[in-house]
Amino acid sequence: MTVSEPWTVGVLIADDDPLVRAGLSMMLRGAPDIRVVAEAGDGTEVLPLVDRHAPDVVLMDIRMPAMDGLAATEVLRARRRAPEVIVLTTFDADEHVLRALRAGAAGFLLKDTPPAEIVAAVRQVALGYPVLSPSVTRRLIARVADAGHDRRRARALERLALLNDREREVAVALGRGRSNAEIGLLLHLSVPTIKTHVSGILTKLGLNNRVQIALLAHEAGLLDDQE
């Protein structure tokens, strides 16, 4: 790519159904700023294809034969410079959502999501912003709250104790789904400063995206109080 060429989002599609792969590929190729770089029919094919094609985003099905999408996401996101992952599936069982997000997935969409929203999600995730189906988000927050057992909450609070007061405020704002610009207005800080705080939080807590910070804030009970 030359300097004058516009940036395009490279996407790897991982799904064991050839028809689903073909449909997603056709849909994404209709967007001028997105290119499908490869397709995988199983989780075991994902890592070699990522090494070969260096996609920005992986659309990952959950149910695949030899290695499912959740296991593939966990292995992939544990690597340095891993692409973002959107888990795309026909069902939205809470345990799958939580496992995928804790593994580092940046998005979770149902396969019946309108095509335009899937394309928009790919763009959003490529820019570093998480995306979840609204129905999944509501139930996820409820699930995390219900699952806030003393041991899990204590572990989350112990990890968050590594943060300073400002970083903790940023973590709470992320948990409430605020953008960098919204957090900046709330805390009277510039967007670059907020980005620096987010990077610091990720480094201190050993996390790799904003979704994981938000989950930790939920698990610690930091969002229980009203704004």
Which terms summarize this structure?
single chain; Arc Repressor Mutant, subunit A; 11 helices; 6 strands; globular
Can you tell me about this structure?
- The protein is of the alpha/beta class.
- It starts with 8 loop residues before the first strand and ends in an 8-residue tail after the last helix.
- The chain has eleven helices and six strands.
- It has a six-stranded parallel beta sheet, sandwiched between helices.
- The radius of gyration is 18 Å and the shape is globular.
- The model has no long low-confidence stretch (mean pLDDT 83).
- The chain folds into two domains: 133 residues, Response regulator (Rossmann fold, 3-Layer(aba) Sandwich); 71 residues, Arc Repressor Mutant, subunit A (Orthogonal Bundle), CATH 1.10.10.
- Strand 5, helix 5 and strand 6 form a beta-alpha-beta unit.
CATH names the topology of the largest domain as Rossmann fold
CATH superfamily of the largest domain: Response regulator
Mean pLDDT: 83
Bulk shape = globular
How would you characterize the largest beta sheet? 6 strands, parallel
**What is the CATH architecture term of the largest domain?**
3-Layer(aba) Sandwich
Number of domains: 2
CATH top level of the largest domain is Alpha Beta
Strand order, largest beta sheet: 2-1-3-4-5-6
Taking pLDDT < 50 over at least 5 consecutive residues as the criterion, the unreliable ranges are none
Distance between the termini: 46 Å
Number of strands: 6
